[in-house]
Design goal:
- By secondary structure, the protein is of the alpha+beta class.
- It is built from 2 helices and 6 strands, in the order ββαββββα.
- It has a 6-stranded antiparallel β-sheet.
- A hairpin with a 7-residue loop joins β3 and β4.
Amino acid sequence: MVITKLYIRNFRNIREAELDFDSSLNIFVGKNAQGKTNLMEAISVCLGGSFRHVRYTQYVPVNVPGAEVFIRLCFRNDDNTGRENVVEYTISNGKPVITYNGLSERRFKAVRSAEIRGVCSGTSEPYQGRSGASARVS
């Protein structure tokens, strides 16, 4: 997996940031308490959870209570298709929501589970759903 872009709004001490990543090496440099770890945590949250093991309510900036937290992580798989995947993490009205290529986490898990069982496609061709998610089934 190669991360290509990261957009963050109202996540911890980051008001707004947009980063385009190099495909080989990226280094975060800065003074203490400037947001380097929060950039890494935003990536971690989109990939499955915080490495700090904190509650999602701690992602909302302290000085902006009720702010909508939004993170968009774009990446390419190593499958040489060049297709970009998008994970979006939002906290709005006190509730976290995560989507993958436009599908809710619950819907994505259901589609992925069906693909693995071969329900969505009776062939070995990739399943191309409305979201663009694809997987090979046997």
